[in-house]
Design goal:
CATH architecture: Sandwich
Order of helices and strands: HEEEEEHEHH
Distance between the termini: 64 Å
Radius of gyration: 17 Å
Number of strands: 6
Number of domains: 1
Strand content: 25-35%
CATH topology: Jelly Rolls
Amino acid sequence: MSQVNLESLPDSPLFSDMNSGELKSLESYFTFRRISEGKTIFIENMPGESLYLIKQGTVRISRMLAEGDEQVLIVLGADDVFGEMAVLDGGKRSATARIAEDVILYGLTRDDYESLAQQDPKLGLKLTLNIVRIFSHRVRNSQKDYRAMLLASLNRKAS
């Protein structure tokens, strides 16, 4: 019996507009992982192969700065998704993901995502649209953050 129970995460944006039957169908494509605090899930610039959905716990997403320091971009918790670009493009990781507090994760590999798209195109499309919405929301927010940071910098220089 699988330990994956997607119906336990009804608020995740990954499953927006999906019914319980669709969630049950998706469960066979996801894997269950329990990871301890302090462990690294993936490192910036390594090849990306999976997206992750947090069932419980917290994950810190960060980037390395030129000076060798680590800049925390965001701390994610239950229902949050990360690593979503990996299933879409299979490119390198844009950040590092470390466990901030013991987690239970559900993972979806690129291969399983592609199998889903072939075996159930309608459900695969729904999942893809939700991944794209998550990604576009993040891009939009990062643009707002960048504009605010730029404006603050210009205001400091003008003072």
